[in-house]
Amino acid sequence: MHAHCDDVDVAWFEAGRGKPLLLIHGLADDHRAWRRTLPDLMVRQRVLMYDLRGHGQTTLGNPDGSLRQLGADLISLMDATGVEHAFVAGFSLGGTVAMRAAIDQPDRIRGLVLVATSSRVGKAAADWYRQRVEMVERGDPSLRATLDNDTAAVYAQSPAQLEEGLLIRRESTIDPRGYANACAAMAGLNAAPLDPELGQISAPTLIVASELDQHCPPKAAEIIAAGIKGSKLEVLPHAGHPIPVEKPRELAASINAFLAEL
User: Fold this and answer.
1) How many CB atoms lie within 10 A of CB 217?
2) pLDDT in the model for residue 89
3) What is the mean pLDDT of the chain?
4) What residues contact 47, with CB distance under 8 A and at least 6 apart?
5) Considering the entire predicted model, what is its pTM?
C-alpha cells in the first residue's frame, strides 16, 4: 500500500490485530529488516511497517538531510493511516527517527522501543557517513561495492543471514539518494546529538542493545537510558548489530512483554 505524505509517497505494510505498533528499519534497509521478528509481533499487535524516505518503494521527495524531516515523515504516515497514537519500535537509524518523533510529537507516541541505536555519533562515524554522501553525489562507481562491504560488516556475527541482507539492501538502494539523505541526517548527530533533548521524551521506553554490536555498542544504549527518565535497558548476549534478524524471537518477546505492561 502507498500513502501520500506531504512530498513523498510512502510504501507501508500491515499485519496482525491489536494496538498499532509501527516498526522503523535501519540505514539502507527497508521494512523487511523486521522479517524474522514480525511473526511473533503480529499475533498481539497491529503491526505497521514502512520504507523510509528514498528507501525501498518510498519516493525521495524533497529531502533536506535532517533527522527532523524523517521524524515528521513518521507522523505524516500516522495521519495518513488514521493512527492517532502508536507504539513505535526503531532499529538503528530507525531508533534515532523514533526518538526524534517522540521529542517533537510526544502526544502521538504511546511507547518507544529503541533497538541497537544511538543518540549521537563521534567524529569518525560522522566522517564515515559524509564519505558515503559524497560517493552518492559524485556517482562514484565503487559505491555498490562499498555498500556490499558495509552490509557484510553489519552481518559479521550472522553470516547465514548475509545473502538476504544483501538482497534487501541492494533493492532498497537502487536509487542511492535516499541512502545519502539518511547518511547526512546521521552525520548531523555529531554536531547536534539528541542527548540534550532525551529528557523531553515522556513515552515509556525500552532500550535493547546487544553484547557484540560494533556499530551501536551497549555504551550507546546506556547513554540513551541515562537520558530518558524511567527507561528500561536490556542487553542481549551473543548478538551483533542486526538484532531483529539475529535474535528475532528474543526481541519480539521483549517487545511483547514491554507493551503488555503498558
Assistant:
1) 17
2) 98
3) 97
4) 14, 15, 16, 21, 23, 38, 41
5) 0.98
